[in-house]
Write a structure and sequence with these properties.
Elements (H helix, E strand, L loop, with lengths): L4 H20 L2 H17 L7 H25 L5 H7 L3 H12 L2 H12 L4 H8 L3 H21 L3
């Protein structure tokens, strides 16, 4: 019993959004979870016995997606630059962040992914599609450039 995408979306969108917003407390993440749930539905080869089976399947998929998003958040905590800047009271701490923001994109990328986002070298390597040793070398070089620039600014 498979129906077209419009029918399914209209029937279950509000339900899945409510579940997602309650679990994630983020509108953007809730929209992502709902969208991913419908994509999984469209890609499944499963035949549903009736509407309650279909609803239960979609609900379970949506809850699992929300759990994955929460797990990712827990494993990769993030803080935006403005929030970081508000919490620095010592000039030297603000200075290092200001210096970081003036680096080239490639240096900034690995430093932010590693130090601020908390990704491991292996995870960064997978994201950037380079070897783990290349990431370590990029980090080494970026640290060196950050230190040189920081010191040249007289900090």
């Amino acid at each position: 019993m498979k129906r077209n995408a419009d029918q399914i979306f209209n029937k279950y969108c509000k339900l899945l959004y409510k579940i997602s917003i309650i679990m994630l407390c983020s509108e953007e993440d809730a929209y992502d979870a709902v969208q991913e749930s419908f994509l999984k539905y469209l890609n499944t080869k499963k035949d549903f016995n009736d509407e309650s089976h279909e609803r239960a399947w979609l609900t379970r998929v949506n809850i699992n997606i929300c759990k994955n998003i929460l797990r990712f958040r827990r494993m990769h905590p993030t803080v935006d630059y403005e929030t970081l800047a508000l919490h620095y009271h010592k000039p030297e701490e603000t200075g290092i962040m200001d210096t970081l923001m003036t680096l080239n994109a490639k240096d900034k990328e690995v430093l932010i992914l590693y130090y601020i986002e908390g990704y491991s070298c292996k995870e960064i390597a997978d994201m950037l599609k380079v070897s783990e040793s290349a990431v370590k070398k990029k980090l080494e070089r970026a640290r060196k450039r950050l230190k040189e620039k920081y010191e040249s600014e007289g900090r």
